[in-house]
């Protein structure tokens, strides 16, 4: 993902012997132990039948969007390249209903303009499902060649591809809003990428998505949001999406069901981790949320928040898989009689 994260690695030994190793980003990651991919929610879900053709996502086109974003170079908050990426995303949404959420963030590095971009695609059912990705790169690495190909660009490019599937159609389901959230990355070094830990990620991050959650809570929009699905670091050619224990269990169960229906279950939930990411402001406000993230990027996280996070580490196939699972998840949610509140 495109910012510092705070992770708790959950290791399971034996049947129920649990060793929880909580780490900040400056600590060395713990060794992974595979866990059950199902780990279901407490109440069994009433899922609709598996019918209709599977969704088809153009992984090559999604990868081209990713390449285009990476070509702009580092895109930290307040930079000229950041502005170019804002304009690039917006240029691919012409004719769509777009909300520009612009504000000034007061950060430990000063005041910065922040621009959340939300594209809205109406549906026939009452309620909204949000698909999100951040697009900025790590601010402390602004003077390096760090481009965040996987962390920020991969998911932002995928959202542009998903917009192609939603555009110009009346959805027979919930309205879908695509949110490119800004200022997700920490402004001070937080221990990731080999930098010192000057400020915890939890105290210096998620500026854009937190502003959106607060704004929508104040104006009543949040009550209409049925689910929040975050994509982050999903382009890795060795794709293994983690099950996040900060996410809503029933919604992650739906994601896994979607993966099974498409034959992609081997790429999902083989590991379990606690992830602090863009979904937390919505989790904290009671919105069912799922973070789709592959947080084993290179051996021992060798590529995360380093100049090694480059386009050659990514695969169009991974974008196709995650995009297909997201669209199939939407189809399942649309056809469910009702969605759990939390």
Write a concise synopsis of the structure shown:
This protein is α/β, with parallel strands linked by helices and 342 residues long. It is built from 7 helices and 10 strands.
Walkthrough of the structure:
The protein has 7 helices and 10 strands. It has 342 residues and is an alpha/beta fold. The protein is globular, with a radius of gyration of 18 Å. The chain has helices at residues 59-71, 80-91, 149-166, 207-219, 249-262, 280-283, 316-335, and strands at residues 7-13, 17-23, 97-107, 110-121, 123-134, 171-181, 225-232, 241-244, 268-275, 289-293. The strands form 2 sheets. It has a 6-stranded mixed sheet with strand order 3-4-6-5-7-10, sandwiched between helices. Strands 2-1-9-8 form a 4-stranded mixed sheet, covered by helices on one side. The model is unreliable at 2-38 (pLDDT under 50). The longest helix is centred in the C-terminal third of the chain and has 20 residues, at 316-335. Helix 1 crosses helix 3, helix 1 packs across helix 7 (316-335) and helix 5 packs across helix 7. It has a single domain, classed as 3-Layer(aba) Sandwich (Aminopeptidase).
List keywords for this structure.
single chain, 342 residues, alpha/beta, Aminopeptidase, six-stranded mixed beta sheet, four-stranded mixed beta sheet, 7 helices, 10 strands, 25% strand, disordered N terminus
Give start-end ranges of low-pLDDT stretches. Answer: 2-38
Helical segment count: 7
Give the overall pLDDT as a whole number.
89
Q: Strand portion, in percent?
A: 15-25%
Helices and strands, in order, run as: EEHHEEEHEHEEHEHEH
First-to-last CA distance: 25 Å
Largest sheet: 6 strands, mixed
What is the CATH class? Alpha Beta
Structural class: alpha/beta
């Amino acid at each position: 993902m495109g910012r510092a994260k705070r992770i708790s690695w959950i290791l399971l030994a034996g049947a129920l012997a649990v060793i929880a190793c909580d780490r900040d980003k400056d600590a060395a990651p713990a060794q992974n132990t595979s866990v059950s991919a199902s780990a279901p929610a407490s109440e069994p879900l009433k899922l609709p039948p598996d019918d209709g053709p599977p969704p088809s996502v153009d992984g090559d086109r999604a990868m081209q969007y990713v390449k285009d974003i990476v070509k702009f170079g580092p895109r930290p908050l307040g930079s000229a390249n950041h502005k170019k990426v804002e304009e690039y995303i917006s240029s691919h949404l012409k004719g769509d209903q777009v909300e520009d959420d612009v504000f000034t963030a007061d950060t430990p590095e000063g005041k910065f303009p922040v621009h959340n971009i939300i594209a809205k695609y109406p549906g026939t059912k009452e309620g909204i499902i949000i698909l999100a990705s951040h697009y900025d790169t790590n601010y402390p690495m602004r003077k390096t060649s760090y481009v965040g190909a996987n962390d920020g660009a991969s998911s932002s490019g995928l959202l542009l591809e998903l917009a192609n599937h939603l555009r110009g159609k009346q959805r027979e389901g919930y309205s879908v809003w695509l949110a490119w959230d800004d200022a997700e990355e920490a402004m001070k070094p937080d221990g990731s990428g080999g930098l010192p830990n000057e400020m915890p990620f939890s105290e210096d991050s998620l500026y854009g998505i937190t502003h959106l959650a607060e704004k929508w809570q104040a104006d009543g929009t949040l009550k209409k949001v049925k689910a929040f699905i975050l994509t982050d670091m999903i382009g890795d050619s060795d794709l293994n999406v983690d099950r996040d224990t900060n996410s809503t269990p029933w919604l992650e169960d739906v994601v896994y069901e979607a993966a099974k229906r498409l034959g992609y279950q081997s790429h999902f939930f083989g590991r379990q981790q606690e992830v602090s990411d863009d979904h937390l402001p919505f989790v904290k406000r009671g919105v069912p949320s799922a973070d789709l993230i592959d947080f084993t990027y290179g051996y021992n996280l060798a590529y995360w928040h380093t100049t090694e996070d480059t386009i050659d580490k990514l695969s169009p196939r991974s974008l196709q898989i995650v995009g297909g699972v997201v669209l199939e998840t939407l189809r399942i949610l649309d056809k469910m009689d009702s969605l759990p509140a939390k």
